[in-house]
Each structure stands twice: as structure tokens, then as C-alpha cells.
Design a protein that fits this description.
Layout (H helix, E strand, L loop, with lengths): L1 H13 L2 H21 L3 H21 L1 H4 L5 H27 L9 H19 L4 H9 L6 H38 L16 H5 L15 H31 L10 H25 L10 H18 L12
């Protein structure tokens, strides 16, 4: 019975009231009745069959989550926070990129064109971390039903992964190639694009991709593998941050936790950079397969979520009033 109760609670959180009433309540009622009528080992079989039927029903009904209309106020708030954050952070990240060329020696249109080409690369670095503030914008309106909030978070995660995959896979490499062509002095030959400046399709079809890989040694095939893993991790990073922030806000609040998004975002950025470079160092120190160290940031954030969960389960008592008050 505990399993069926949790299943009904899960459906109530993700689906609208009409879908729960028409689809999930009859299913779970039949599941409970069959379980009560069975005995012994047959109850285990009924439980497994009911759980499988529930999972299939959730999968079949999932399109209704995507089709759930999101209030325009939430959509605009999410878009505004992501845009402002990405413009500020991407603009700051573009400064060291542009300092490689002295703008005084170039005309203003050329310098502006180079700035425009540097922005996509900086955008890919800033976009995943904007998800923390975006999730707060979804949870801000208390009048929105829970299933609408979850549908908005799911849509945000799916769209963010698609945007990130397009950016790191095609837009940023193309912009980087164009920036390199513009930054090459007149009369010089434009250097061949590096692996970071190739699209995902070009990396997957690279003639040296299937060459031998020697752990701990530099090989062209190893660098291609590392670059493909790097882009894969960056693509799923926004969905991970949506999940982390959503689960953190859904747990019981403590006195200073979870922190506001303005404080949590720079902490997440610092933790990611530390895990990223630590994974790079461990990969070389332990002679691992190229790109193995890039999995360390997702592992670190997964452990972070587990630690938050354990912290939320610990009993917390508010400070007692002074004696005689």
C-alpha cells in the first residue's frame, strides 16, 4: 500500500487533476484491490505488474506535461533572468578574449564584429549557470499549481539542453573560426581550425577519430574523444542545474539554506571550475582515458544533491525562547 500511495502522490505532483482522476486513480485502485485479494508470493507478482503498468501509464501520459500551458508571467520572468545573466557574464568573459587584439589598431566596425563573434563562445560558458536563477523565477509564484511548475521546469531543462547542444556543437565553433579569421593580420594565412573550432559532425567524422588511444599520452584521437565528452557534459549541465535547484527548493528550508540564487550561482560556478580542473589533473596524474576527468563535475554535483538530501532529513529545532520570556 505504501508503494501505491507514493505512486499516486507522484502522479498528483506531475499531472493535472483531471488526468489524475481519469487515468491514475482507477489504475491505482485496481492495483490495490488486486493486491488485497492476492496472498503470499502472488502479492509480489501483483506489485511488480502494477508498478510496470504505472510506469507505462506515466510514459504514455507524459506528452500532457509538455502540453501543459505555462503562464506568460513565468515564461517572461525565466527568459528575462536568463538573458540578463548571460549578457552580463558573457560580456565579462569576452573582455580577455578581445584583449588579444588592440582595438586602437582597428576600426570600430571590425572591433564590433569581433566582439559579436566572441559572444557565442562566452555564452556557452554562462548559459548553464543561468538555470539557478531561472528555476527561482518558476517557484516564485505561489498561485501556480504544482504540476504547472514542474511542467515549466521540465520544459526549461529540455529546451536548455537543446540550446546548449546547438551552441557548443555548431554556433560557438563556427563563431570561433570566424573570429580567428578576423583576428589574423592582413596578408597572413588563416591557421587551420583547432578541434575546439570544429562542429560535432566534423569531430564525429574526423579521419583520425578511430586511431589508437594511449592513456596518459597525447594522441589526436584522444583529443577528439576529450572534446566530444566535454561537449556532451556541457550539454547536459543545464538540466542538471535545473534538477539540483528544483530539488533544493522543494526540501524543508533551514535557517540559511537554500541560499538565494544571487549567492548560490557564483558558488556553483566556483565548484564547477574546481571540479573541472581537478578532473583534468587527475586524468593526467592517473593516466586515465582522455576525457575521463570531465565526468568529475557531474559526479560532484550528484554528491552535492545527496548531501543536501541528508542535511534536509536531519531534525532541526528552532532556538528556544529565553527562560522567563
Amino acid at each position: 500500500m505504501a508503494t501505491t500511495n507514493r505512486a499516486l502522490a507522484f502522479a498528483s505532483r506531475w499531472f493535472d487533476e483531471a488526468t489524475v482522476r481519469r487515468t491514475f486513480e482507477p489504475l491505482i485502485a485496481d492495483w490495490q484491490r488486486e493486491w488485497q485479494d492476492a496472498s503470499g508470493v502472488r502479492r509480489l507478482w501483483v506489485s511488480l505488474r502494477g508498478l510496470a503498468a504505472f510506469i507505462c501509464t506515466v510514459a504514455i501520459s507524459s506528452p500532457t506535461i509538455i502540453a501543459t500551458p505555462i503562464p506568460p508571467s513565468i515564461s517572461w520572468a525565466v527568459a528575462r533572468r536568463i538573458t540578463v545573466f548571460c549578457l552580463v557574464v558573457a560580456g565579462a568573459l569576452s573582455i580577455p578574449i578581445l584583449r588579444a587584439r588592440d582595438p586602437i589598431e582597428q576600426d570600430a566596425p571590425l572591433w564590433a564584429a569581433m566582439l559579436l563573434m566572441a559572444m557565442p563562445v562566452a555564452f556557452t560558458m554562462a548559459f548553464p549557470f543561468a538555470m539557478v536563477m531561472a528555476v527561482d523565477a518558476i517557484r516564485r509564484d505561489a498561485a501556480v499549481p504544482p504540476h504547472v511548475e514542474r511542467a515549466a521546469a521540465m520544459k526549461l531543462g529540455v529546451i536548455a539542453v537543446c540550446v546548449m547542444l546547438t551552441a557548443v556543437g555548431f554556433v560557438a565553433p563556427l563563431a570561433s573560426q570566424e573570429w580567428r579569421a578576423f583576428s589574423t593580420p592582413a596578408g597572413w594565412n588563416v591557421p587551420q581550425p583547432r578541434l575546439q573550432q570544429l562542429s560535432i559532425v566534423a569531430l564525429l567524422t574526423h579521419p583520425e577519430r578511430d586511431a589508437a588511444i594511449v592513456p596518459g599520452h597525447y594522441t589526436r584521437a584522444g583529443e577528439i574523444r576529450r572534446e566530444l565528452i566535454n561537449r556532451s557534459v556541457l550539454s547536459i549541465l543545464p538540466a542538471m542545474f535545473v534538477w539540483l535547484r528544483w530539488t533544493a527548493l522543494g526540501r524543508p528550508r533551514r535557517r540559511f539554506w537554500p541560499l538565494p540564487a544571487v549567492l548560490m550561482t557564483p558558488i556553483v560556478m566556483v565548484v564547477f571550475l574546481m571540479a573541472f580542473y581537478s578532473g583534468f589533473i587527475l586524468e593526467h596524474e592517473w593516466a586515465l582515458q582522455p576525457g575521463t576527468g570531465l565526468f568529475l563535475p557531474p559526479i560532484v554535483f550528484g554528491l552535492w544533491s545527496l548531501a543536501e538530501q541528508q542535511f534536509a532529513r536531519r531534525p532541526w529545532r528552532a532556538p528556544s525562547a529565553p527562560h522567563g520570556a
